[in-house]
Amino acid sequence: MEKKARIVILGSGESGVGAAILAQKNGFDVFVSDFGAIADKYKEELEEKGIAFEENKHTEELILNAGEIIKSPGIPDKAPIIKKIKEKQIPILSEIEFAGRYNKAKTICITGSNGKTTTTLLTYHILKKAGLNVGLAGNIGYSFAKQVAEENFDYYVLELSSFMLDNMYDFKADIAVLLNITPDHLDRYNYEMKNYVDSKFRIIQNQTSQDHFIYCADDPETIAALDRHQINAERHPFSITNKVENGAFLENDTIYFNLNNTEPLTMTIQELALQGSHNVYNSMASGISAKILELRNETVRESMGDFKNVAHRLEFVAKISGITFINDSKATNVNSTWYALESMSSDVVLILGGVDKGNDYSMLRNLVKEKVSSIVCLGLDNKAIHDAFEDDVEIIVNTKSAAEAVEVAYHLAKKGSTVLLSPACASFDLFKNYEDRGDQFKAAVREL
C-alpha cells in the first residue's frame, strides 16, 4: 500500500495507541510522541506493530511535519507543543474523530458533567443483554480506534468528555445523550460557562432528522442553551418533575417511557438497580436509547433491574459493626458529591477533600445540614472545607491518608450510619488518581 500523509499522535495511553494502530492499518506514516514515560504494555504493543515512538520528550522536527495531529484529550491547548502546532496550522483532532472516519457501526454517544460513566455502562449492559453486537469505548473501556481497526461491531456506546468533543468536527452521533451541565473543568474554558456549555453541545453536531437527541428537561443550563444551537435530530426529553412527550417522565414513583411509534414502557423506581434521583435520570436516558433501538420492554426492564454499577461510583464496600462504607471516589467535583449525598438516607460521616478546583461548596450546605453528622477531611489543604461547613457540622477532622480517614470515620460513626467517601475534589495531592484513592479507601475499610 502506498504511504499516505504523516500522522503524529500525542499521548500514548489507551486512545493514543489505538489511534496509532488504526492509522497504521490505513497506510499512514505514523509516529507516537509522549512527553512522559510510556507504560510497558503500550510500549510492547507499539514495538510489536513496528510503530515509531518517543517518550519523555516532544521532538519538534518529528511532530511539526505532520499532516494531522491526533491529541490525547488530557493535553491542554496551552501546552507549548500545541501552541506550535496551531501556529503551523496543522489540524488537531481527537481519537474519536479519527476513528469515526472508518466506523460503519451505529453510535450512541453520551456526555454530561455527571453520570455519564454510569449511563454509558447501563446503556451498554441493556444492548448487550438484548443480544446486540455492541462495543464500549470513549472515556471508558478500550480504545474506539483500536476496536474500529480490529473488531466488527454493529453498535458502539461511547462516553465522551468535553475534552474529546472539542477536537471532533465531522463525527456524527446516531443517538446523542446530554445528561446535564454543571460547572466543571472551567480552567480549560477561560472560566466561561458558555464555552463549556457549547463544548457539551458539540455532541449534536452533524446530526440529521434521522438521528436522535436525548436531554434532561430539568437541567437549566441545557434548556437555556437549546435555542442557541441548531438541533436537527428528533428530540427526546426526560424529566422527574413534568410530563414530557416523546421521552420519559416520572409520576408517583413510576417512570413512563412514551416514545413516538413505540410500545409504552413503565417501571417503578423501586425496580431500578440504581437508586437516588440522579440515577432515575441516568436510567431514563438509557431506557430512551433502548426504546429508540426498539429493544423488547422485558429486556429493558430486566437490564435496568440487574445492573451492577461502576467501581468508585457509589460502590458498596462493606458493612462493619452496623456501619455501611460507600466508595464514591469518582466524585471529583461538588455536583457529584451533591448527587451522592442526595441518594443517602441514613446519618452520614462524609470524607471530603483533595485538590480543590475552586469549589463552591454552598450547594452542599442544605444536604450537609440534613444528613451529615461529621466531616473527615482527606487532603493537604482543608481550609475551604472548614470555612464552608464549620457552622453546619459539629465535628470536622483533618487526615492525611486513606487509612487515617477510615479509622477516624469509623470511630465517629454510629450503628446504622454510613461512611461516605465522596471527596468533591481531585486526588493528586495524596494519590495517583481517583482509582488509587478509592482502592486505598477500600483496603483500609477491609483492615478494620
What is the CATH T-level topology of the largest domain?
Answer: UDP-N-acetylmuramoyl-L-alanine:D-glutamate ligase
Which percent range fits the helix content? Answer: 25-40%
The biggest sheet, with number of strands, parallel, antiparallel or mixed sense and barrel status, is:
9 strands, mixed
> Overall mean pLDDT score?
92
Strand order of the largest sheet: 7-8-6-9-10-11-12-13-14
InterPro entries: Mur-like_cat_sf, Mur_ligase_C, Mur_ligase_C_dom_sf, Mur_ligase_cen, MurD
Function: Cell wall formation. Catalyzes the addition of glutamate to the nucleotide precursor UDP-N-acetylmuramoyl-L-alanine (UMA).
Keywords: ATP-binding, Cell cycle, Cell division, Cell shape, Cell wall biogenesis/degradation, Cytoplasm, Ligase, Nucleotide-binding, Peptidoglycan synthesis
Subcellular location: Cytoplasm
Task: Give a short overview.
With 448 residues, the protein is α/β, with parallel strands linked by helices. The protein has helices spanning 14-25, 40-49, 60-63, 80-87, 95-100, 116-129, 144-150, 162-166, 193-200, 220-226, 277-292, 297-306, 334-342, 365-371, 383-389, 402-412, 434-447; strands spanning 6-10, 29-33, 52-54, 68-71, 92-93, 106-111, 134-138, 155-159, 175-178, 212-216, 234-239, 247-251, 254-258, 265-268, 315-320, 323-327, 348-352, 372-378, 395-399, 418-421.
In words, what does this structure look like?
The chain has three domains: 6-93, 3-Layer(aba) Sandwich (Rossmann fold), CATH 3.40.50; 97-306, UDP-N-acetylmuramoyl-L-alanine:D-glutamate ligase, CATH 3.40.1190.10; 315-447, Protein-Tyrosine Phosphatase, Chain A (Alpha-Beta Complex), CATH 3.90.190.20. It is built from 17 helices and 20 strands. The chain has helices at residues 14-25, 40-49, 60-63, 80-87, 95-100, 116-129, 144-150, 162-166, 193-200, 220-226, 277-292, 297-306, 334-342, 365-371, 383-389, 402-412, 434-447, and strands at 6-10, 29-33, 52-54, 68-71, 92-93, 106-111, 134-138, 155-159, 175-178, 212-216, 234-239, 247-251, 254-258, 265-268, 315-320, 323-327, 348-352, 372-378, 395-399, 418-421. Strands 7-8-6-9-10-11-12-13-14 form a nine-stranded mixed beta sheet, covered by helices on one side. Strand 15 and strand 16 (323-327) form a beta hairpin. The longest helix has 16 residues, at 277-292. It comes from Pseudopedobacter saltans (strain ATCC 51119 / DSM 12145 / JCM 21818 / CCUG 39354 / LMG 10337 / NBRC 100064 / NCIMB 13643). Cell wall formation. Catalyzes the addition of glutamate to the nucleotide precursor UDP-N-acetylmuramoyl-L-alanine (UMA).
